[in-house]
Amino acid sequence: MRLRIASPKKISSPLSRYKQDLLSLEEAARYLNVSKSTLFRWRSQMIGPRSFLLGGRVRFRLSELDAFVARSEASGT
Question: Would the pTM count as exceeding 0.85?
Fold first, then answer.
């Protein structure tokens, strides 16, 4: 009988799913189809999607980006 060891890619932990929901400034800008400078300006003016620092780097939750889009649609901006 052979023992099979699952590859690390097939093991899904809560932490790996959590990391997938976090986007960098560049990824968030691409997701929203805006430039990095626009997203950075929105962040500094506190008018864009909510973000936070993690390890000294700006991160956005995917759910926050979707909520920002929904708020923008509702307000007509």
Answer: no
User: How far, in Å, CA of 59 to CA of 48, rounded?
Assistant: 13
Tally helices (H) and strands (E) across the chain: 4, 3
Q: Which residues contact 67 (CB under 8 A, 6 or more apart)?
A: 49
Chain centroid offset of residue 71 CA: 17
Kindly report the length of the chain.
77
Report pLDDT digits (tens) over 9-41: 454 555 555 567 899 999 999 999 999 999 999
Q: How far apart are CA 28 and CA 49, in angstroms?
A: 9
